[in-house]
Amino acid sequence: MHPVRRLAVAAAAVLALLTGCTSGTPAEPGEGPSGQAVTLRVLAGSELADLGPVLDEAAAATGVRVELDPIGTLDGAEAVASGAAAADHDAIWFSSNRYLALQPEAQARLGTATDIMSSPVVLGLRRSVAERLGWVGRPVTWAEIAAAAGARQFTYGMTDPSASNSGFSAVVAVATALVGAGSALTVEQAASTAPALRDFFAAQTLAAGSSGFLQDAYVRRATGADPGDRVDGLINYESVLLAMNAAGDLPEPLELIYPADGVVTAEYPFTVLAGASEQVRDASRRLTEYLRSPDVQLAIATRTNRRPAVPGVAPAPTSATLVELPFPGQADVVDALLTSYFDKLRRPSRTVYVLDTSGSMERDDRIGDLRRSLAGLAGADPSLTAQYRRFRGREEVTLLPFNTVAGSPQTFTVAEDDPGPDRQRIADAGAALQAGGDTAIYDSLERAYRLAQQQIAADPDRFTSIVLMTDGENTSGADIAAFRAYVGALSVELRGVPVFCVLFGESSTTEMEEVAELTGGRTFDARTVPLAEVFQEIRGYV
Known about the structure:
Layout: E1 7-8, E2 38-44, H1 52-62, E3 64-70, H2 73-82, H3 84-88, E4 91-93, H4 98-101, H5 104-107, E5 110-115, E6 117-126, H6 127-133, H7 142-150, E7 156-159, H8 165-178, H9 187-190, H10 195-202, E8 204-208, H11 211-222, E9 233-237, H12 238-247, E10 254-257, E11 265-266, E12 269-273, H13 278-291, H14 294-304, E13 307-308, H15 331-345, E14 349-356, H16 366-380, H17 384-387, E15 396-402, E16 410-413, H18 420-431, H19 441-458, E17 463-470, H20 480-488, H21 492-495, E18 499-503, H22 509-519, E19 523-525, H23 531-538
Parallel strand pairs: 2-3, 2-4, 7-8, 7-9, 14-15, 14-17, 17-18, 18-19
Antiparallel strand pairs: 1-3, 4-12, 5-12, 6-9, 6-10, 6-11, 6-13, 15-16
Helix pairs in contact: 1-13, 7-10, 8-15, 16-18, 16-23, 19-20, 20-22
């Protein structure tokens, strides 16, 4: 489970790092009937950061300050089910509690839930593409969308369903509409590899572990010099797509397609955890009453493009009547659906792991951390989150160790129906890594790109990414300036290959951030977080 990364959104940031729901602050005007300021620690979806101004105003009006702690969909579910969430949080605020409600351990830990706003997950397409497909001004079904995707008449991006609820909701919606025929999915249907489902997900050409990264990656491609590198659309929350249009960064607006056969909607329930104190329950009541007041509901709709939870406050973005698709009624249905998505339905991925094995990796058993991280991805970690972050069926994995020079690469292709033996071979290769020598980061990255070029030429229909893990600064071979020039001269097919950099030990933050920026990747910090957890987080992006 990922460690909690705190994001204080309340105006009184000095109250951050509190260890409990705290009272006793001198009363100020507007602090509410208790006469005391209260801080609620809330485990939440990362997309709720845009509520910062609303929550600042809520603190001033009610005396209830909110400290949001962002976490991914399955990580959050695991934290609630295990009881870890209740150990240092008062409430949760995810886009939906549906998956939690399917797990008896998690359901028993939930208290009162109050819907605050909503946003359906829909398809946004470049307007010219929507017009070419004839999807403007008329109802369109998921079956039509899947048929066009299977014929590669458009491409799209979507978040990883194990890391982000928008991707999770999209998988449920598409599978339910195409396989479930309007009824809740069964285990057998969820495990199905129906051609329509496989074809639909094969048109996904952009993946991400978060909605924010997905937006940035889409804009980067939309505004790039090469039209062939562009993605035609995104599956995401209606609110996100509307905000992207309003921002004015896109060369062409997105046309929102609301499938006539149904959607899955996020309702954002603010949920007090079971066993909360009377003070927490009172503060949560004051907060939710304030957030559901008509003026605040209108402010939420205006600022975040989400729909009000209170009817009649603001007009909906579309006049179309939305059909809500039934959510699966059993946890094993969802588990089967996600397993099928990763191992059978999703477009297969290719990842080159560029792994530092220089002498400094002997320090503090860093090489041991690396070996254990690879073993975890190979299946040694039994947690719920790790179940969907393991090396996947059909995935191509290359391990490229480096020290003074780039070492010999080893490439593995994980079997679709029996992935265990191939995962073990990867774990064995990781266990054999030895530390020694200097650190040739940029020579090794160039070697990784040359490998990727050969692999793409042999099999172009894969997501391709590079993961760089280094615990130090470059001490051998080419420098960052040379790599900058190298990236500038990359071929069209390689310009779309991102580098995801793991900051570890004494690695240079500045240079790693530049590598990520140059290639369209991002950095992940393993200096204060266990390396194995960071490797799992990266899996949402590859």
